[in-house]
Amino acid sequence: MKIKNAIILLLIVAIIGAGAFVGIKGIQIGETEISPVRDMMKLGLDLKGGVFVVLEAETDATGDELNRIMGQTQGVIERRVNAMGLTEPNIVREGDKRIRVELPGAKNAQEAIDMIGKTAQLQFVKPNGEVILSGNQVKNAEVVFESNKGNVPSVSLEFNSEGARAFQAATKEVSAAAALNERIIAIILDDQIISAPEVREEIPNGRAVITGNFTIDEASNLAALIRGGALPVNLTEVQTSAIGPTLGLDSLNKSIDAAKIGIALVLLFMIVYYRVPGLIASIALMLYILIVLYVFIGFGATLTLPGVAGLILSIGMAVDANVIIFERLKEELRNGKSLRAAVDSGFARALTTILDANITTVIAGIVLFQFGSGPIRGFAVTLMIGIGVSMFTAVVITKMLLKLFININIFKNTKLYGA
Amino acid sequence: MMIMNKTKIWFGLSIAIIVIGLIMGMINGLNMGIDFTGGTMMQFNLGKEVKVNEIKDIISEFALDADIIHAGQDKQEVIIKTKADLNNDQRQEIFSAFKERYNLTDEDFLQAEQFGPAIGEEIRNRALLSIAIAALGMLAYITFRFEFKFGIAAIIALLHDIFVVLAVYAIFRIPVNSSFVAAILTIVGYSINDTIVVFDRIRENVKFMKKASYEEIADTSINQTIARSINTSFTTLLSIIMLYVLGVDAIRQFALPLIAGIATGTYSSIFIASPVWTLWKNWEKKNKRYNAA
């Protein structure tokens, strides 16, 4: 029995040790590679650097009308953001009239914000480069099927009255030109020509149709681009955060250093004060940290700066569960119980305390998650994951390790358990 | 250790700290962060320490009424905070002024944060609401698991902690911002956690110590749990203090109230929560006796 227990114990310690090593350094076995935790963790903008901006649409529209406007706006922004070629941009509608744009790793924050917020990118341009009208004079653009031309998909344009006048004048002039390349009115979106149709005649009524060998997809794409080029509403910045990459990295490194030293001190204290149980709690705590980190990665949760604080705080709370158990254990030993009996009743009596105490904390966590925003939610997630895992490690793992230790029979002196 | 017979001292001490904080708060006003008031914050790396007056001079043309704070290891960074709601172009204009003067690159624009005035109010209201909801949720749980009086005593201890932490914010002029909300809620969670452990013991001892007075029960329970209370606070504080010592400004602003909160959370679970419960229980017993007579 002794040897078997010792082997199991050593095995567990070895697994946890190996886990910690892989977590810090990463490992490569043949084809499979496990990256260090640091590289696998999704980092928030405050740790990685980047930009987020919350834009609010200036509109009184409601219901479906508002939804249409917001959908269109989101589409425009998405297209602009994608053109920037950033990894993992995130564009979501927030509430009714707001859109949150997150651009991790955007190097030049100001430029990025400029790009997103630009209005009226769409221009109709004469061959000589003169701008005829811009996107906000386009009322609508949609796919139509020209029945007199065999139902081919085309794009119809509709201008407002001002646009219609300008377009009439321009088409009159351009259609009169001799050479083909003189008869083109280019449609330019964000400095890119998206269509260059030839003008055949003067177009007076503010309605034009672009025909060509479009597939339905191409036609609807072009229509969307023309519609989308004109941001349907003005956007105002209601909240911005731009964090340079060096600052984010600095925050992360310093937090990791703080965590390392903090953890080391906590483990040291536990071993000095609680001796054998303290040592066991330290092993369980290492496992706790590993599980929390991997659960975090598994959930795809994003680690933010307050999240780091939550993580470190949850380590403190994980210790608490152990402390409650060990104090009970000591009491039971002083009451004259045997080591084994003391462990059993100590754990049993500590369990309700730990449950009640942690559930109340979880209530705070849920509320934080429900009502908080951005980084605060990150904090709430860490806290709750931390509490859940800490109960598991303290109640299950610590108990198992403690029993293994006792069964090995080397450390029989109850003094080693704090009695 | 006898706690209950010195109740007046503990209550007095707490009230003194809270009153000092309130007075400081009323004189200086709380240092509201821009995320609560709306406004703009920018952080530049100037490459060297630059006198506040010089910076004020540069930004004087923008009429910002800004706070200027040095940051970074050698104070080579500067944080400009204003309640003015500056858009991207305006921010860029201000940075350009610094860029020219000190030969900076775009990388030296370390960070910018901007909050429209409406968003500030929203965040603040949501914060207050979440604290209220959390408190009610906990009260309900404690009433369900223990009894209503424990719940109320725990909430009083909680309010005590919130006020003490507010006093710390007022005294040290820490900005009240969204980290503040997270800090307060963490403290709420921690303080309740701490109080519950003591109450759990009282609940247990009430069954065993049938002949004892409520004071004796509370004292015994506190003495049985005090080692745990102190050790847990100590280990939690260890890690948070490291965060404060080594962390960046944003983290330190978060760590300091947590340090205060954990200290006061431990204090209140011992010196406030149990005495309140004892007082109430005794008052109830006395009233019953009169009623019977």
Low-pLDDT residue spans of chain A: none
Oligomer: heterodimer
| Sequence of strands across the biggest β-sheet of chain A | 5-6-4-14
The fold-level CATH name of the largest domain in chain A is Multidrug efflux transporter AcrB transmembrane fold
Number of domains of chain A: 3
The major pleated sheet of chain B works out as:
4 strands, antiparallel
Order of helices and strands of chain B: HHEHEEHEHHHHH
At the first level of CATH, the class of the largest domain in chain B is Mainly Alpha
CA-CA gap between termini of chain B: 36 Å
Briefly say what this structure is.
The complex is a heterodimer of chains A (419) and B (293). By secondary structure, chain A is α+β, with helices and mostly antiparallel strands.
Question: How is the secondary structure organized here?
Answer:
The complex is a heterodimer of chains A (419) and B (293).
Chain A: H1 2-25, E1 27-29, E2 32-34, H2 37-40, E3 42-43, H3 45-48, E4 50-57, H4 63-84, E5 90-94, E6 98-104, H5 109-117, E7 122-125, E8 131-134, E9 138-146, E10 152-159, H6 161-175, E11 186-189, E12 192-195, E13 207-210, H7 216-229, E14 235-243, H8 245-299, E15 302-303, H9 305-334, H10 339-371, H11 375-408
Parallel strand pairs in A: 3-15
Antiparallel strand pairs in A: 1-2, 4-6, 4-14, 5-6, 7-8, 7-11, 9-10, 10-13, 11-12
Chain B: H1 7-28, H2 34-37, E1 39-45, H3 52-59, E2 67-71, E3 77-82, H4 88-102, E4 109-115, H5 117-145, H6 148-172, H7 178-208, H8 214-246, H9 249-292
Antiparallel strand pairs in B: 1-3, 1-4, 2-3
What this model shows, in words?
The complex is a heterodimer of chains A (419) and B (293). Chain A has 419 residues and is of the alpha+beta class. Chain A has three domains: 2-43 and 244-417, Multidrug efflux transporter AcrB transmembrane domain (Multidrug efflux transporter AcrB transmembrane fold, Up-down Bundle); 50-119 and 234-241, Alpha-Beta Plaits; 122-229, Gyrase A, domain 2 (2-Layer Sandwich), CATH 3.30.1360. Chain A contains eleven helices and 15 strands. In chain A, the strands form five sheets. Chain A has a four-stranded antiparallel β-sheet. Chain A has a four-stranded antiparallel β-sheet with strand order 8-7-11-12. In chain A, helix 1 (2-25) runs antiparallel to helix 8, helix 4 (63-84) crosses helix 5 and helix 10 (339-371) packs antiparallel against helix 11 (375-408). Chain A is elongated, with a radius of gyration of 33 Å. The model of chain A has no long low-confidence stretch (mean pLDDT 81). By secondary structure, chain B is of the alpha+beta class. Chain B has two domains: 4-33 and 119-292, Multidrug efflux transporter AcrB transmembrane domain (Multidrug efflux transporter AcrB transmembrane fold, Up-down Bundle), CATH 1.20.1640; 39-115, Alpha-Beta Plaits (2-Layer Sandwich), CATH 3.30.70. Helices cover 72% and strands 9% of the residues of chain B. Chain B is built from nine helices and four strands. Chain B has helices at residues 7-28, 34-37, 52-59, 88-102, 117-145, 148-172, 178-208, 214-246, 249-292, and strands at 39-45, 67-71, 77-82, 109-115. In chain B, strand 2 (67-71) and strand 3 form a beta hairpin. The model of chain B has no long low-confidence stretch (mean pLDDT 86). The interface between A and B is large, with 75 and 72 residues. Strand 14 of chain A pairs antiparallel with strand 4 (109-115) of chain B. Chain A: It holds the Pfam family SecD_SecF_C. Chain A: This is Protein translocase subunit SecD. Chain A: Residues 128-233 form the SecDF P1 head subdomain domain.
